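In this supplementary section we document a worked example of the pipeline. Step one takes a protein sequence of length 189 as its only input; no multiple sequence alignment statistics are reported here. Step two produces a three-dimensional model, which step three serialises into structure tokens for compact storage. The input and output of this example are shown verbatim.
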Amino acid sequence: MFKNAVRSLLAFSLLSSAAFAADSYKVDVAHTNFLFKVSHLGVSNTWGRFNDFEGSFSLDPKDPAKSSLILTIKTTSVDSNSAKRDEHLRGPDFFDAKTFPTLTFAGKTYKKVSDTVWEVTGDVTLHGVTKPLTITLTKVGEGSDPWGGFRQGWDASFTLKRSDFGITYMPGGIGEDVTIYASVEGVRN
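The serialised model returned by step three reads:
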């Protein structure tokens, strides 16, 4: 009888911990955007986007240390609405996409600021260089979708300095700061 009670208690604790574990989400590529802007000659901003990426996230409000966020963007997918410029951006003056095919962000520490805001500190790797970065995520919303799934959406924006990552082509003509805007929608696994 004692063994059965212990088994029941163990089973209950395993089920309880699973029930309270944070949900994990896979990035929905069709409803996620990574946009960037950079100054051109100090007179305007050039905008672009990345079209090929993947990622996942899990934000655990009860135990932020159990959270995770990983994003991988293929640098060959840069799209600035100009085929000639995009080829240049993929080349050695900028992304050098043949040598460095991805831009990644891997979260390391997670801080819940409020029910709708998190600060995530991690490593961004671009052009073969890894630097720490803290991003602020703002929850857009969450809810059931028409296909029986459940979704969450988050927005973030942050700035990277090109020269921090060894991208120094045309200083003064192309801005040092590149602002990235992310709008990520995830489908619960």
